[in-house]
Design goal:
Elements (H helix, E strand, L loop, with lengths): L2 H38 L5 H46 L2 H15 L1
Amino acid sequence: MNHRKLVQEYYGDINNLAELLAKLVNSYRLLIGGAGELNTIALSKKNDVKHALKRANELGEVIDEIIEVLEKTSYGYMDYCEMKSQLIEGKIQSKYIETEIDEELKFKD
C-alpha cells in the first residue's frame, strides 16, 4: 500500500470517528433531556430516573473514549497536513499562484 492511500484511509478512519462522536453526542443530549422530562413527571418512579441517568452516563463514557482516541490519532494527521503544507509552500512560489488567479478572474470577465 502506498503512503498516500495509507494517509487517505487514516483520514477516513478519523472522519468516521468524528461522525460517530457527533451522533453519540446527539444521542447523549436526548438521553439527558429524556431523563429531565421523566424527572418532571409526577407519576415517574425515582428508580426510572436513576436508570435513565445511568444509561446516559454509560453513553458518556463511550463518548469520552472516542474523544481520547481522536486526540491521540488526529495529531499524526495534523502533522502530516502541516508537513505537506510546508513542502508545497517551499516548492510553489506565490507569484505563480497570483498569476493563475488573475488569469482566471480575467477569463470570467
